[in-house]
C-alpha cells in the first residue's frame, strides 16, 4: 500500500468492515448478478419450452437476489481482507525501518 492509498483506506477502515461489505453488495453484487440472470433467462428460452411462466419468473428473481447477496458479500469481504493485509504489511515495514 503506497502513501496515496493509505489515507483513503484509513478513512474506509474507520467506517467499519460491515459497512464496507454492505456497500459491496450494492456496488458489485447487482452488476455481477445481472449478466448471469440474463444468461439463465436466455438459456431457459432457447433450451426448453417454458410451461409455467410464474414459476420461471420467481426462479429468475430468486436467482438474481441470491447471486447479488453471495457475490457482493464474497467480493466485498475479499477486497476488505486484501486491503487490510496490504495496510498491515505497509505498517510493519514502516515500523521495521525505525
Structural write-up:
The chain is mainly alpha-helical. Helices cover 89% and strands 0% of the residues. It is built from three helices and no strands. It has helices at residues 5-15, 17-47, 53-97. Helix 2 packs antiparallel against helix 3 (53-97). It is rod-shaped. The protein starts with a helix and ends with a helix. The model has no long low-confidence stretch (mean pLDDT 84).
Question: In a few lines, what is going on in this structure?
Answer:
This protein has helices at residues 5-15, 17-47, 53-97. The protein is an all-alpha fold and 98 residues long.
> What is the N-to-C succession of helices and strands?
HHH
How many strands, what sense, and barrel or not for the largest sheet?
none
Total helix count? 3
Average of pLDDT: 84
Coarse shape:
rod-shaped
Q: Strand portion, in percent?
A: under 5%
Indicate the low-confidence ranges by residue numbers.
none
Give the CA-CA distance, first to last residue: 18 Å
Helix content: over 70%
- Count of beta strands: 0
- The Rg value, from CA coordinates, equals 20 Å
Q: Could you say which structural class the secondary elements and strand pairing correspond to?
A: mainly alpha
Amino acid at each position: 500500500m503506497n502513501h496515496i492509498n493509505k489515507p483513503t483506506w484509513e478513512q474506509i477502515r474507520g467506517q467499519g468492515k460491515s459497512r464496507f461489505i454492505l456497500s459491496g453488495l450494492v456496488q458489485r453484487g447487482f452488476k455481477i448478478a445481472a449478466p448471469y440472470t440474463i444468461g439463465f433467462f436466455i438459456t431457459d428460452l432457447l433450451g426448453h419450452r417454458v410451461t409455467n411462466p410464474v414459476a420461471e419468473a420467481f426462479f429468475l428473481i430468486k436467482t438474481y437476489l441470491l447471486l447479488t447477496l453471495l457475490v457482493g458479500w464474497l467480493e466485498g469481504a475479499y477486497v476488505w481482507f486484501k486491503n487490510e493485509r496490504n495496510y498491515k504489511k505497509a505498517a510493519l515495514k514502516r515500523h521495521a525501518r525505525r
